[in-house]
């Protein structure tokens, strides 16, 4: 569907970030649970809980500030941040649970509003109150974010009046408890709900901590800010600083204004102690209403952003906007989600998920900054710089807080995120922007290269078939496509090197890239390049020589021998140079009629080793021959047959024993053997037939031997010259 031109109003720092963030932090916990926290932990304990809580959120806010000043953040807040850094799969695995949890948060805030309302009007029907509040919230949010911001200004005025009422109470003598008595550590007696059977510091921390988790309220509006790079850091950090001071002062005031018994038994103690109690009640209602409003607006923006990036089904619908740029369709879906959760009437069982998904989000943002800092890429140059230890502290404290609050639900939350990630990773999402994963993979490859460079010649255990395939005839390459894929699959690679005279527009380059893409789609990494050279052999040798300086260089040159090839002047010089460069060689000669047959059997011919049947670490061409045979066996589902011919009848037993030991040490299951006595050339034709015959080649690389073996075996043949760095026994 076509998207209307967005004419949505853009917001500044105060209205778009500071106000919603501050109002979400100054929520219902401040009014109805801070007194209980002080009653249990004492003023010193309460201050410590506040400091720890805000330290966790401050570290994440600093990390978020750094990353938002380094990218062009779109709609979706934390979802957009993580997606642009780690890809849509990771962003979506975080965004989907976070969206659902924000919807649940709206429901919890509505329930909190209802409790405050029924405290004033106990005769009102709870069900009607819930749905009336939902209707008002949805209407405001549906009309526009601008109206929601203006509504929050009114609520901020109400909360300021409630704080003024507390200040007036302090000046009027409410603080009757001496400072020396108030400044103590609590006895952690518990609550009415557990008959004051006891509590602990971390249990009280778990009750208070959700109060500090509103720092994403402003970031969720990232797509509708005039200057998100400036507004998100400034608005969020100012909101954290102001709310921290308010919480610390309120804790001091309530500790000196009420006895321990009052603090523990009366959740409405702040209302009773304020100069004008109705202002506190209005503050409770305003705080829950504003938090619900910020959550419904923010969650719809997350859903809209995921729709824009095609993360969810029916994304085109979710990404639809009104004429004034409001994400109306996402708002309607969000409204339905909230309406359904309201019908549950009690979501206490899943309420911890809300806080824990917030903490997972915090952890992921810190991880993003850690990765960016560690990679050291020039693209990471945020305008807001932070110390390197900040995201580590933010990550550690976020994870610690998760398991302090609820270990079981924390594990459930992580499992949900991983399940969503697994689902999204299988959807082949097209990322509309480059993320940091490319830099991460390149940096890891560089790290691996640097740490293994000194032993680059000794990688027998890590051997993979990394082919260099010279190409001047694309049709011949297409004919060998499956054969090449089966030699390298799954961990090997194929580098296609085209050779042609100089041309400004190379059709060969286009065709090779298309074939490389087909290899990649079939599970084998492949890349392509074209070398402009008038002579085939020189072009290949230049390419092979240049690749010697690369760490991830091809270890095998694959040559396809065709009737029109000049073996002596074109292929043999390539093989000789490969031998000099210690690169393996595979020379393939396809049988004109048999081709590769049914791919059921592979004959590997073992040269006569009379006088030296020892199995050392280097057994010549046999290493690469058997390695290739084993790869084909696995990918074809074929059987291997080892065949050797000895001239001396006295060596027959030694040959059989050699093949037996080779099968055992090389771990070759279900491998057949044949030992013949006599002349090799006469007995080749007598051997059992196979779909592919593999022979080792001596340094002379005789052409007559190649043609004769293809004729005598009546099969396609693969001639092997190893590099000296392979080992089937590794």
The largest β sheet comes out as: 10 strands, mixed
Whole-number total of structural domains: 3
The protein's oligomeric status is single chain
Number of strands: 10
**Overall 3D geometry?**
elongated
CATH fold call of the largest domain? Amino acid/polyamine transporter I
- The rounded distance between the terminal residues' Cα atoms is 59 Å
CATH architecture of the largest domain: Up-down Bundle
Beta-strand content bin: 5-15%
User: Helicity level, as a percent range?
Assistant: 55-70%
| CATH structural class of the largest domain | Mainly Alpha
| Radius of gyration using CA atoms only | 36 Å
CATH superfamily of the largest domain: Amino acid/polyamine transporter I
What is the number of helical segments per DSSP (H or I, 4+ residues)? 28
What is the typical, i.e. mean, pLDDT?
82
- Uncertain stretches: 1-6
Can you lay out the helices and strands and say which pair or pack?
Layout: H1 13-25, H2 28-32, H3 34-68, H4 78-86, H5 88-120, H6 126-143, H7 145-171, H8 179-182, H9 201-208, H10 228-257, H11 260-265, H12 269-273, H13 277-308, H14 315-318, H15 328-344, H16 351-375, H17 389-405, H18 407-425, H19 437-452, E1 466-471, H20 474-479, H21 481-488, E2 493-500, H22 507-521, E3 525-532, H23 536-547, E4 556-560, H24 567-580, E5 584-589, E6 601-606, H25 621-636, E7 639-646, H26 652-665, E8 672-677, H27 680-683, E9 692-696, H28 703-713, E10 716-721
Parallel strand pairs: 1-2, 1-4, 2-3, 4-5, 6-7, 6-9, 7-8, 9-10
Antiparallel strand pairs: 5-10
Helix pairs in contact: 1-7, 1-10, 1-13, 3-9, 3-10, 3-16, 3-17, 4-5, 4-16, 5-6, 5-13, 5-15, 5-16, 5-18, 6-7, 6-13, 6-15, 7-13, 13-15, 16-17, 16-18, 17-18, 21-25, 23-24
